[in-house]
Write a structure and sequence with these properties.
Layout lengths: L2 H44 L2 E3 L5 E3 H23 L2
Antiparallel strand pairs: 1-2
Helix pairs in contact: 1-2
Length: about 80
């Protein structure tokens, strides 16, 4: 196999790998969107924070903000990969 054939084969493998990564990333984005909806519902029902039976306090507003930021980063990454 010459260099050109190796480059073409490697490019094909890279494209397939990126397609798989985009599929996984899309699934993660869907999960994060569902989590955000769940957190928003908890905030409406329980307020901005909750105390678990273990005594741990969860600040839902903080959790919502960090999850939304993660979602934004994932969407930007997906768009950059899809456009490359």
């Amino acid at each position: 196999m010459n260099n050109a054939e190796q480059i073409i084969e490697s490019s094909g493998v890279l494209v397939e790998t990126m397609k798989k990564y985009l599929y996984i990333l899309d699934a993660q984005i869907e999960r994060h969107e569902a989590v955000i909806g769940g957190i928003q519902q908890v905030v409406l029902e329980e307020g901005h924070s909750s105390v678990l039976p273990s005594g741990t306090t969860i600040n839902w507003t903080e959790r919502l903000g960090s999850t939304e930021k993660e979602l934004e980063i994932m969407k930007e990454l997906r768009d950059k990969i899809a456009n490359s």
